[in-house]
């Protein structure tokens, strides 16, 4: 995973570094902070945890007492869904007042998405982004990325392998979770040979695919299932079933007593319906209304999301709107209908 693909939107002023340079940058820093995007998913969390293990490994830089801190982009704790991961503890950003030598953003293409960790980012002596999104906006001092990588976890795994550090089972587990979740269990369009090749190494190091799948996909709470029921009840179709839209509110999460991480798999449920080409999930968040898009049949929702100031991948993207749910639906749905009609007629 050492080839670099420069995303089209990358600012020309951001120096692009290669994998050996990333390792050098890390070796020259004693205090490092790592942060993924807000509402972190398996890739953001797995990548951050694996990277911390690498940077704290005595093998990585013998004799150096490196202090590596994981930050969250928002108050509160990390999503419960992933609490089976070993050493799964985070310091909330509001408690972090140190000035890092190096601040590393993982799986986060825009500065806005590091949320409340921004103060620490701005204090840092140097900043680095490690990411696989196509819409990196050029906000850090250094950028290491490949938008053909299935997950940021693949990039982190590549760094671990290149570093010469003996990969541990935990490093493998973190990266495996990153790849598994970002590829939708090796089924989304971004799933590629490298994802399988890396996963093979991880399984050889002791990761159990069935154990991880059970923890991530088959340990749902009854409340999470009830949220899915609400989602399904509220589905609205357009264009003869090619477009489906549903929503979840803050009130839903409050009434069911569950966290926002319970919404992570919902867009894929909508897209799983026969005939659906684009699925839209509208979900209330603290910083606005999040619009999650999933697509297939060659419809690129990343470009669509970019036009609204968001981003993502061709088949999975999102953006945030500063408007109420009903209004958001009214403005987004006709645009998506037009996108589907345009794509179908070409
Ligand atoms: Mn990712």
CATH class of the largest domain, named Alpha Beta
Span of the ends, CA to CA: 34 Å
Mean pLDDT: 91
Which residues form runs of ≥5 with pLDDT under 50? 1-6
**What share of the residues lie within helices?**
25-40%
Proper CATH architecture of the largest domain: Alpha-Beta Complex
Summarize this entry quickly:
This protein is α/β, with parallel strands linked by helices. It contains 12 helices and 11 strands.
Q: What attributes does this structure have?
A:
346 residues; alpha/beta; Diaminopimelate Epimerase, Chain A, domain 1; 2 domains; six-stranded mixed beta sheet; 17% strand; binds manganese (II) ion
What report would you give on this structure?
By secondary structure, the chain is of the alpha/beta class. It has two domains: 198 residues, Alpha-Beta Complex (inorganic pyrophosphatase (n-terminal core)), CATH 3.90.1640; 124 residues, Diaminopimelate Epimerase, Chain A, domain 1. The chain is built from twelve helices and eleven strands. Strands 6-7-8-9-11-10 form a six-stranded mixed beta sheet, sandwiched between helices. Strands 2-1-3-4-5 form a five-stranded parallel beta sheet. The N terminus is likely disordered. Manganese (II) ion binds next to loops. The site of manganese (II) ion has 6 residues, from loops.
């Amino acid at each position: 995973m050492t080839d670099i693909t420069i995303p089209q939107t990358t600012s020309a002023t951001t120096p692009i570094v290669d994998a050996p340079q990333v390792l050098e940058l890390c070796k020259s820093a004693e205090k490092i902070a790592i942060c993924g995007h807000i509402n972190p998913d398996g890739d953001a969390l797995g990548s951050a945890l694996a990277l911390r293990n690498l940077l704290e490994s005595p093998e990585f830089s013998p004799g150096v007492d490196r202090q590596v801190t994981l930050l969250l982009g928002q108050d509160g704790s990390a999503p419960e869904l992933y609490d089976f991961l070993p050493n799964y503890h985070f310091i909330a950003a509001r408690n972090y007042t140190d000035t890092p030598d190096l601040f590393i953003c993982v799986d986060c293409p825009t500065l806005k998405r590091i949320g409340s960790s921004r103060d620490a980012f701005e204090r840092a002596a140097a900043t680095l982004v490690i990411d696989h999104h196509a819409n990196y906006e050029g906000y850090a001092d250094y950028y290491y990325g490949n938008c053909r990588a299935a997950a940021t976890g693949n990039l982190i795994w590549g760094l671990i392998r290149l570093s010469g550090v003996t990969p541990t089972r935990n490093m493998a587990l973190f990266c495996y979770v990153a790849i598994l979740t970002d590829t939708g269990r090796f089924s989304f369009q971004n799933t590629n040979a490298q994802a399988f090749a890396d996963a093979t190494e991880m399984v050889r190091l002791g990761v159990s695919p069935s154990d991880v799948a059970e923890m991530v996909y088959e340990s749902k709470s009854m409340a999470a299932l009830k949220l899915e029921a609400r989602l399904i009840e509220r589905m609205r179709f357009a264009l003869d079933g090619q477009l489906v839209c549903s929503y979840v509110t803050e009130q839903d999460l409050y009434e069911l007593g569950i966290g926002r991480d319970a919404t992570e798999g919902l867009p894929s449920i909508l897209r799983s319906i026969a005939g659906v080409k684009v699925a839209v999930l509208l979900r209330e968040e603290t910083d606005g209304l999040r619009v999650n898009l999933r697509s297939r049949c060659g419809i690129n929702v990343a470009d669509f999301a970019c036009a609204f100031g968001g981003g993502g991948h061709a088949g999975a993207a999102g953006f945030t709107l500063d408007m109420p749910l009903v209004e958001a639906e009214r403005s987004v749905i006709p645009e998506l209908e037009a996108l589907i009609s345009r794509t179908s007629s070409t």
